[in-house]
Structures are given as C-alpha cells and as structure tokens.
Design a protein that fits this description.
heterodimer, A: 193 residues, Beta Polymerase, domain 2, five-stranded mixed beta sheet, 8 strands, elongated, B: alpha+beta
Chain lengths: 193, 490
C-alpha cells in the first residue's frame, strides 16, 4: 500500500527562537531593528529593503531550514507607531520544528516591499490578499491583482481609516424606505382568506 | 496525412471556458477560468471572494468573546474545529489554561468534527467522480455525529460549543454512550465505503497519477493537513505543537508516497480510523471535574443569582425615582421596548405595560434613579411610587443580583483586557492548518485578527494540480484538496 502510518514524536527538537534571532542579527546586523518576545514567540523586526534576502537566508540555511511559510499578512499601526505598516511572516521548519516571526516595516508614503514568491511559491495568494486589503505593493509578484474584493473596488478595507460600516441604507438609498413600507403591508395581508 | 490536411483547412485555437461560480462540483462559489486545448488544460485561473464577509475586519470591532460565532461561519463543514482553533489561540493570548476535562471534551468533539468533515469530503468527492452510493452511506454516519452535536449544544452545524476557558456545558452521559456505540460501529462502516471504491477500476483510473505533487513542492506552496501528508511530509500540528489533550493520546499519522489524488484519498481514509481510535481513548480516560476555568474574569455570572433578564418575571417591576432622575434620556435610548418616555431635563416614566424587564435602563442610568420594586409587577404607578426605595436601600440579595447584572453587561460589551503583544497559534483542523494571528494593544478587542485559512492556500494550488490534465480531472482536483469556500473567502 502506498500510504503508511508513521509515528511522530511530540517532542520538539528545534532551536530556541532567541538563538535564531541572534543568528539573523549576526548575519544582517544593519537590517535588524528590534527583537520582541511575547508568550515564548519571538518576532524579529527588520527593515524592508533586504527583507527577501533575510527570508531567503532563513529558507536556504541548512541549520535553520524554514521550509514552511505558515502565514503572511500585514498590520496597519495607524496612530500607534511611526512607521504605519508591518508585513508579518510566520515561518516554521517542518524538519527541525522551530518557529520565528519576521516583521518588515513598510512606510505609509511608499507602500512597497519585495515579493517572497521566489522563496515560497505559497506566498502568491497571501501577497495578493495583502495588496487587496492593505494596498501594499509586492514588487516582483507575478500577478498582483485584487483577490477577495471585486476588481473595481476602491480603497483598502483592512486599513484602520476604512470604515467598518457604510452610510445608513435609508439615507443612501431612498428605495429602502419603500421596501420597508411594502414589507409591512404584506405582513398585515391576510393570506388565508 | 489526413490530420495534416485537416490542419490546413481548420484553424485550431485554445478555448476559454468559464467553470462556476454556480457549478455543483465546485463545493461553493468558486469560479475557474479554464484555457483548454482540445480537452487538455493549458491554464487555470481561479477567482474567489464571492463569499467574502470581512470576518477579519469584523473581529477588530468585537471583543474576544463576541468574535467566536464568526469562526463557525468560516468552515461550516467542521465548525467545531474552527471554534477550538479560536479558543486555543485566545487562551494562549490571555495566558489561561482550560480545565483538564474541558480539554478532553474539546479534543473529542474536535475529532468528531474531523470525522464528519472527512465523511462529507468523501461523499462529495466520490459523487463528483461518479460514485453515488458512497454519498448516501457517508451521510448516514454524518447524521449520527450531527445528532450528537445537537445533543450537547442544540446546534448541528454552527455549534459555538467551546468557550474561551473551557466548554459551554458538560456532556451528558447518554452522549458518551452513543458516541461509544458509534466508535464501535464506525470501523465496519469505513470498510463499507472502501469496498465500494478502494479497488474500483473506475475510481483508480480517475485518481491514480492525477494531480501529482512532490513533497518539496507541496510544502513550498504552503499546503497543510492531509493534502500535504499525501505527498509524504510528516507535518501534523497535533504532533508538532500539541494543544488540548493531543499529547495524552496515542495515534499515528498516515502519510502518502506519491502525492497523487489516490494517496490523499487513502490518507484521509486512514485518518478516519485514527480519529475513531483517538475518541475511544479519550472517552476511556475522560477525567471528572469542572469544564470551565474558575476565574470570574472569563466566565459569566451564574444565571440563577443574577437579576432575571431573559425570562420576564411577574414579581419584579422597574421604576424611575422622580427625585433622582435628571432627564438625560439615556434610559430612553437604551430601552428596546420603547417603554420609557419623558421630556428632556424632566423625570422620565416607564410604561409598565410595555416593559419587558430587560434591565437595560437600570444598567445605563448614571444617577441611580432606576430602582427595583419586588412584587411590583401589575401595580399602578402611584402604588409603585409608594413602594419604591432608593437603589442603595434595597435588600442585599437584590443589590447583589444587580451588581452581577452590571458585571455581565460589562463582560459582554467590553470583554476582559488582553495583554499587549502579538502571537500566532495554529491548530490542525480537518482541512489543514488553521492559524490565528492576534495583535493586541492591551484593550478588550483585538487590534488585528488574522485568519490563516487552509482552503485559501489550497485553492491557490489548483492551477498547479490541474495543468496538463483533462477537464474531467479538474473536478477530481477540486475534490482532493478539500476546500470550503466560506473559509477560503472569510
């Protein structure tokens, strides 16, 4: 039979995320801005210029071997941080079982960062979604189009200055009151007799 | 010779075909634009987003506890697993641990959800390829599991049964008995499905060597779950990053070798048996104890001690004290029954005939002018004015019930504050890796809530799986990656 059942141990063997952060710092001393830790998860905050070089190093290095891009997303820190956007890469090594998070800072006036598709082809749709929701342009992406929103949509919905709700329906669309009136009439209509 | 002559006369070109969004084999509203040369696929362009509801944006406007029902609506085929993924992530963010019994129950229902998801997958996958009987067999067993879900929480699909800090309520004994009986019978039922298709010549022709993907490529594309394991990568989050009770059970992970549609099918069939085995172990080991974390910060006040709000009682009436009321109008706006009337800066009045005893006015009033009259329901306003006392002179038990009610309102509306920081927590849902990335700014609502949906990534892999195959194999490819578009579009 082609499919076999294997026993996988639950003990982690990977490197300590702090050591990985140190390794990145050693390799790219002028790129790393800060290292943050929360609940045993370590994020390395880097400049965006060499972001893909850092990711490529993490992917190709035989000791690190981050083969699995768990997640790629962006965060809008409007009003919280000086540099507005951060592109977040959650990386995992299925071979060594360690995890690291890379956060690349992207300023508001020039929302561009190099694409990670050459490193992980799975980054394709993640980056399209980031572009769709935050307006971050990934240079070198093979097919950067909107993905979840319609192609002619204006604005970037997940930005903090994008409203949660639209204007009120009855003010925006006069026909709405007619529909309400009609439905009220129908509700009172005696269907039985 | 004839062919060459024909090529001279007829012009051949690629044909552009729209498949979907409304196509029964696309498992939801997925649109594929196929460029075909004869019957061979040259290019596939998937279009998604028809079910986009902005769950990530909505999550930013809701407290951590309110966003839980949204996760049901992502992968509605295995809602329980989504709920578990969410609560595990939020628990880690708050730094709390659910009690042991709750963890076991969550693992049991999570595995039940895996079985019911794989059954639906097998049913539709086989139906797409042309085996009708399997569909009916699978739904027979899925029905049993959905009835069990109904027994513990009243819902079959959108369950919202797990809670941050445990589960909603303990499972009844008859649930465990029925589930045990299910696990007794289920292995023989799996054999029934396999008899129908496992060595079926048509099934083999439609699945073997279709949509082959190598291990390196699969992991590079971000595939997870059985879709990845079919290619031979032993990556299972239940083993790599154990959550809930997965470190206390003994199970194997099936992995394939070739990475074709047949291997992925076999992986899922073996996973059904493993899940069945896990449930049996957990029922045997199920420890006694509470099912909710013992911390008033994360639990609602007990209902029997709180002021009644859901059941209008005959005994209690709410009354506005004329002297204390400043006429701000807050209670008027808060009243859902529109029972409160009054001019600005003059004392307001509750119309007792309309009042539904919801206590919204009591919670909103800042001047302590709303009070409770025990046994006051049905009395006239004059009589109530005689009986009414200031809120701080009320009997102790009513006062306490009031405080609990205010606490409940605050818990629902604001929610407990999370520590500042960001974290990513992944769980193994039936379709792959479901990740939650939270950025917390120290308030009761997430600053950013990101959902990493496995179906989204898998739908992105469709072009790679289809190109070079025939049009009919696109259907097999959509089935084999097991996508649900509600989760893909979020």
């Amino acid at each position: 039979m082609a499919v076999t059942e294997v026993r996988i141990s639950i003990h982690t063997t990977g490197l300590n995320p702090k050591d990985i952060a140190e390794k990145i710092k050693g390799q790219f001393p002028d790129q790393v801005i800060d290292v943050a830790e929360f609940r045993d998860q370590v994020s390395v905050i880097i400049k965006r210029d060499q972001a893909v070089a850092v990711l490529k190093y993490l992917h190709d290095d035989p000791v690190l071997s981050f083969d699995h891009l768990q997640d790629l997303t962006a965060v809008d820190y409007k009003g919280k941080k000086d540099i507005r956007f951060e592109v977040v890469y959650n990386l995992y090594s299925t071979r060594y079982r360690h995890h690291i998070r890379i956060r690349a800072q992207v300023p508001e006036n020039d929302t561009k960062i190099n694409s990670a598709v050459p490193v992980w082809s799975g980054a394709d749709w993640h980056e399209r979604e980031c572009f769709d929701m935050f307006g971050i342009e990934f240079t070198g992406h093979p097919d950067l189009r909107r993905i979840l929103m319609p192609e002619d949509w204006e604005g970037y919905p997940l930005r903090k200055d994008y409203p949660l709700k639209g204007p009120e329906l009855d003010k925006d669309w006069p026909g709405f009151t007619d529909v309400l009136k009609r439905s009220k009439e129908l509700r009172e209509f005696d269907w039985e007799g | 010779m004839i062919q060459k002559e024909a090529e001279k006369i007829f012009e051949t070109r690629e044909l552009n075909v729209n498949m979907g969004p409304q196509h029964p084999a696309t498992h939801g509203v997925l649109r594929l634009v196929l460029d075909i040369d004869g019957e061979t696929i040259v290019k596939v362009t998937p279009y998604v987003g028809y079910l986009h509801r902005g769950i990530e944006k909505l999550g930013e406007s809701l407290s951590y506890f309110q966003a839980l029902p949204l996760t049901d609506r992502m992968d509605y085929v295995s809602a329980m697993s989504n709920n578990i993924g969410y609560v595990v992530a939020v628990e880690k963010l708050f730094g709390i641990e659910a009690p042991e019994r709750a963890k076991f129950i969550r693992t049991i229902v999570g595995e039940m959800s895996r079985i019911s998801n794989h059954l639906l997958w097998l049913a539709t996958h086989a139906l797409d390829i042309g085996a009708m009987t399997v569909f009916l067999y699978c739904f027979r067993e899925r029905e049993w599991l959905l009835d069990l879900f109904e027994m513990i929480c009243g819902a079959r699909l959108t369950v919202t049964y797990p809670r941050v800090g445990g589960v909603r309520n303990d499972v009844p004994q008859e649930f465990l008995e029925s589930l045990w009986k299910f696990t007794d019978e289920f292995p023989s039922r799996i054999l029934e499905y396999e008899t129908l298709i496992d060595q079926n010549r048509i099934w083999l022709q439609r699945t073997v060597d279709i949509g082959v993907i190598s291990a390196e490529e699969a992991i590079n594309m971000g595939m997870t779950g059985p879709t990845l394991r079919g290619s031979g990568v032993p990556y299972d989050i239940r083993k790599h990053m154990p959550y809930d009770a997965y470190d206390k059970v003994d199970f194997d992970v099936p992995i394939g070798t070739k990475g074709d549609t047949y291997d992925r099918y076999r992986c899922r069939m073996l996973e059904l048996r493993q899940s069945n085995n896990i449930i049996r172990q957990l029922i045997e080991k199920l420890p006694p104890g509470p099912v909710m974390v013992d911390d008033p910060k994360f639990t609602l006040p007990p209902k029997d001690k709180m002021m009644p709000i859901t059941h209008p009682t005959k005994e209690i009436a709410y009354f506005i004290l004329e002297k204390a009321c400043k006429g701000c109008g807050m209670c008027m706006r808060a009243c859902p029954a529109k029972a409160i009337t009054g001019e600005k800066k003059a004392a307001h009045k509750i119309n007792q005939a309309l009042c539904v005893n919801c206590a919204n006015c009591l919670v909103t009033c800042k001047f302590k002018s709303v009070t409770v009259v025990s046994g006051g329901k049905g009395l006239s306003d004059e009589k109530l004015a005689e009986l009414a006392v200031a809120p701080d002179q009320l009997p102790e038990d009513i006062k306490q019930a009031q405080q609990l009610l205010v606490k409940q309102f605050e818990f629902i509306k604001k929610g407990p504050k999370a520590p500042e920081g960001d974290l990513y927590v992944a769980t193994e849902v039936p379709k792959g890796e479901l990740g939650f990335y939270f950025v917390s700014d120290g308030s009761g609502k997430p600053f950013r809530m990101r959902l990493r949906a496995p179906s989204f990534i898998h739908a992105g892999c469709l072009p790679r799986l289809c190109v070079g195959h025939l049009v009919a194999d696109v259907i097999a490819a959509i089935g084999t990656i097991d996508i649900v578009l509600g989760e893909c579009d979020r």
